[in-house]
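Hi everyone,

Forwarding the result from last night's run.
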Amino acid sequence: MKRGRAGASRIRVGHAGDLASLEALERASFAGDRLSRRSFRSLLAAPSAALIVEETAGRVRGYALLLFRRRAPEHARLYSFAVAPGERGKGIAQSLLAGAERVALSRDASLLALEVRRDNKPAQALYAKAGFRATGSRADYYEDGMAAVVMEKRLGRTDASRTRRRVPAAKRMGDR
């Protein structure tokens, strides 16, 4: 994660000390479908989740929560994403998305997927600008009955990481 000077913006791994900030951010960002403090606490400790925050001068201004499945490690899901209402338009969302992609790639994911409210056009535009494309929808997805647009992005890998992941054919087939 990016490290910065005191007072500078940085993306870092979330921790239990962020719970009050995450809960306040959740209340300010969402009218419904909110994560509870208990959920955040559980997800911070879960090996199947990764939570990163954007922090400036000791204040959490946004977060990205990723989920991973053991049976499909190549797929990561951006489960929740929020930037404080008064902090939008300052590049925080783009920094968090880039950080989320780095985390997904570090766990060998090659696809990052998300759901976004059908009526949240600014978020859809943000994701599209970041390289996500709409691939479907989910009817009645949110607690108020709103549908979700499903968006996905293929994550790029460097040549070095592709080489590292190659397994000789004999090993793939179980030969020794």
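The domain at 10-172 is CATH 3.40.630.30 (Aminopeptidase).

Cheers,
N.
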